[in-house]
From TrEMBL:
This protein's name: ChrA protein
This protein's GO CC annotations: plasma membrane
Signal peptide region: none
Transmembrane helix as UniProt keyword: yes
Primary localisation category: membrane
Organism whose genome encodes this protein: Domibacillus iocasae
Keywords, alphabetical: Cell membrane, Membrane, Transmembrane, Transmembrane helix
Keyword Heme recorded: no
Length: 396
């Protein structure tokens, strides 16, 4: 009885923490990683810096929404498959509900220039800067890894393609293997994943089976819901580089086919920028336009299912791989590359689309200080950011 009570308490804690993040994590996937780092690593210490960085590196390798996969992975580490599901639901459902509401009742409201939205973007600047400082000091402490960070930063900014990130991670892993294969480092704490390798293998097989079978089933039937499921599943399964990359895929799937107009698509994109949580929940808006709230939920399930299958399939093998002495050096290079990718994303699109004048920079510095020096919770900074952005718009 005590064990069940403890387990239930742990699952409720996972859900409550993740749903708070779901309500307050503005700013896109890079900012989400910053919020996760602050909550799960700094405050709650559910995992250490290196284990968090290793999990981020794994999710960068996998297609799909990296920040959502990191959240699912942490939930699985903490509470098994059910913990992963609860972590996903908590982080995702607030934005899903908000975007379904946007699709149904707020399509004619212009919120693109609202001051509070700009304030939330400035919050993202502070959060990501805080995360970068914390991760860089631990993951790139020597000159060799700083050089990897710098090289990755330059490549990602100057050569922007859908496959740049995965390419630099692979190359950084090879460089790290060559530079650090004989380097002795402390082993990270082991996580007892409540997932068997058989279960992981089944998830990976199911991922590829659906990718192949859904288009065949779509052609063999005339059911609209299968066509919708296939389009969203393929979009979620074949995208590297985070939420923004999935938007052109969704546009090509639904606008030319007449499911929705270009104007409706762009209105939904504006709404997606105004809500917290993963940008993949933009699918809920499209689904709701096509078939009401039921379509929104179906679209959400379909676009996130590949990410779920991939992270559950990879986690049972990941802890063993990252402890292999032959792979430790590669992971050191990969972790440095992740820092470079974070810095590149911090510059664009976060900084370039947000800090447009001196008052924005001053406000970002204040929010950063609230996180870094005053140690305030991220949700407090989010509220201050939204209110401050609205006030700034009144006086500028």
């Amino acid at each position: 009885m005590t064990m069940q009570k403890t387990s239930f308490s742990k699952l409720m804690e996972i859900f409550l923490v993740s749903i708070r993040l779901g309500f307050t994590s503005f700013g896109g996937p890079v900012a989400h990683l910053g919020y996760f780092h602050e909550e799960y690593v700094r405050r709650r210490k559910w995992l250490d810096e290196k284990s968090y960085a290793d999990l981020v590196a794994l999710c960068q390798f996998l297609p799909g929404p990296a920040s959502s996969q990191v959240g699912i992975g942490i939930g699985v580490m903490r509470g098994g498959v059910l913990g992963g599901i609860l972590a996903f639901l908590g982080f995702t459902m607030p934005s899903v509900i908000a975007l379904i509401v946007f699709a149904l009742v707020l399509q004619e409201v212009d919120i693109a220039d609202a001051g509070w939205i700009h304030g939330l973007k400035i919050v993202a600047v502070a959060v990501v800067a805080h995360a970068i400082l914390g991760m860089a000091g631990k993951l790139a402490p020597d000159l060799k890894r700083k050089a990897i960070v710098l090289a990755v930063l330059g490549i990602v900014l100057l050569w922007q393609t859908a496959f740049t990130q995965i390419g630099v991670i692979v190359i950084a892993g090879l460089i790290g293997f060559l530079l650090y294969k004989d380097h002795k480092i402390d082993s990270s704490p082991s996580f007892a994943f409540p997932l068997s390798r058989t279960f992981g293998g089944i998830c990976l097989v199911l991922f590829f089976a659906l990718l192949v079978l859904l288009p065949i089933l779509r052609e063999a039937t005339s059911l609209n819901w299968i066509a919708l499921f296939d389009s969203f599943y393929r979009s979620g399964a074949l995208v590297f580089g985070g939420g923004h990359v999935v938007l052109p895929l969704l546009e090509r799937e639904f606008v030319p086919a007449g499911w929705l107009t270009a104007e409706q698509f762009l209105a939904g994109y504006g709404a997606a920028q105004a809500v917290p949580g993963p940008l993949f929940t933009f699918a809920a808006y499209i689904g709701a336009l096509i078939n009401g709230w039921q379509g929104g939920l179906l679209a959400t399930f379909a676009i996130f299912l590949p990410a779920f299958l991939l992270i559950l399939g990879a986690l049972p093998f990941w802890d063993t791989l990252r402890r292999n002495p032959n792979i430790q050096g590669a992971l050191m290079g990969v972790n440095a590359a992740v820092v470079g990718i974070l810095i590149a994303a911090f510059y664009t699109p976060i900084w370039t689309s947000t800090i447009v004048d001196a008052i924005d920079f001053v406000f970002a510095a204040i929010l950063f200080s609230m996180l870094m020096y005053w140690k305030l919770s991220p949700w407090v900074v989010v509220i201050v950011g939204a209110l401050g952005g609205a006030l700034l718009r009144l006086f500028t």
